[in-house]
Design goal:
Blueprint lengths: L7 E4 L3 H11 L5 E5 L15 E4 L2 E4 H4 L2 E3 L5 H8 L3 H18 L7
Parallel strand pairs: 1-2
Antiparallel strand pairs: 2-5, 3-4
Bound molecules: FE2/S2 (inorganic) cluster.
């Protein structure tokens, strides 16, 4: 069976998966793109919430991306920023779940 040559890879998914997968294509020199999913607020390039580090330069995923050269993305800073609101997300989920249980005996509201 002949091996197919891979010219390009697009990776879309969780940041850790994009990071690990892009490290698999790097040694082979395969051009690799990722579609980043940072926190976005306004989507216009004004708020800065979606900033990512690409080859040492700050870019806004909403206006400069969201597709970038995977081998130039600082995935560690992206993942750190994605965890930034975890305490608030946890609290929000707890409030949501408490509301469901106390209002209708465990039923969800429409
Ligand atoms: S979402 Fe606000 S700058 Fe990108």
């Amino acid at each position: 069976m002949a091996r197919e040559r891979v010219d390009c890879v697009w990776i879309i998914g969780p940041a850790i998966m994009m990071k690990v997968t892009s490290e698999c294509t790097r040694p082979a020199g395969i051009k690799t793109f990722v579609s980043l999913n940072p926190v976005m607020v306004d989507g216009t390039g004004m708020c800065g919430s979606c900033r990512v580090q690409i080859d040492g330069t700050t870019k806004f995923a909403c206006v400069d991306g969201p597709e970038f050269d995977a081998h130039k993305v600082d995935f560690n800073s992206l993942m750190q920023r994605l965890r930034m609101y975890q305490p608030e997300e946890k609290e929000s989920m707890e409030r949501y779940q408490a509301h469901i249980c106390s209002c209708k005996g465990g039923e969800r509201h429409a």
